[in-house]
Amino acid sequence: MDPDAVIEATQRWIREVVIGLNLCPFARRVFDGGLIRYSVTDAADTAALAAALTEQLHSLTTAPAEVIETAFLIHPNALADFFDYNDFVAGADELVAELGLEGVIQIASFHPQYQFAGTRPDDVENYTNRSPFPMLHLLREESISRVNDDPEKLLDIPKRNIETLRKLGRAKLLALVNRAPG
After folding, report:
1. What is the rounded (10 degree) CA torsion for 40, 165, 182, 2?
2. What is the Cα–Cα distance from 121 to 138, expressed in whole angstroms?
3. Residue 44's pLDDT is what?
4. Phi, psi of 113 (to 5 degrees)
5. Phi, psi (deg, nearest 5) at residue 139
6. N or C: which end of the chain has fewer CB within 10 A?
């Protein structure tokens, strides 16, 4: 898979879906500011993906936030099954802790088949975390704190996103999502 095409599809998804629907109120600033690093790995198994994640975590924490504030590790060849991916995310959080980065970096998870516990696969709320490819979003916790003065606002984001998608409706949402990566 062409890494440039993967990055282009990811950027289009961020622009049209994440920013376009205001699913993340912090995304526009870093997106427009060019402060996001996109890394596409050709890892095809969890061991190679864990190695790529370790490299990206080190790279992000050593780069100045003014240059790279957040990063996406996109892995189109690994963990196509959402439940395998979800298991890996739990291990990724453990890796963050093992590297002493708990409280420094947090991982947000996105997958083409993302499904929240207690939902059906076709429920619209799953699209708040559905992306064109499996990916891990590495966020600096300091950056989140800096742009958000009220922790309660953070807790409201998922609820607001679900309401946004439900109001948009399944047909319009699918038209938007299917257009974004193409």
Report:
1. 10
2. 25
3. 97
4. -115, 25
5. -115, 135
6. C
pLDDT at residue 63, rounded to an integer: 97
Enumerate the H helices of 99-169 as residue ranges: 141-147, 151-168
Rounded Cα distance, 23 and 176, in Å: 14
Q: How far apart are CA 120 and CA 143, in angstroms?
A: 33
Task: Give the position of tokens 């936030």.
Answer: 65
- Which tokens sit at 3? 């890494």
- Residue 57 burial by Cβ neighbours in a 10 Å radius (0-12, 13-18, 19+): buried
pTM: 0.93
C-alpha to C-alpha distance for 111 and 102, rounded to whole angstroms = 23
Which residues are CB-contacts of 180 (< 8 A; sequence separation ≥ 6)?
9, 12, 13, 15, 16, 17, 132
Which amino acid does the sequence have at 79?
L
d(CA 90, CA 132): 21
Sheet of strand 105-110: strand arrangement:
36-40, 70-74, 135-140, 105-110
* Chain segment 36-68, per-residue pLDDT in tens: 999 999 999 999 999 999 999 999 999 999 999
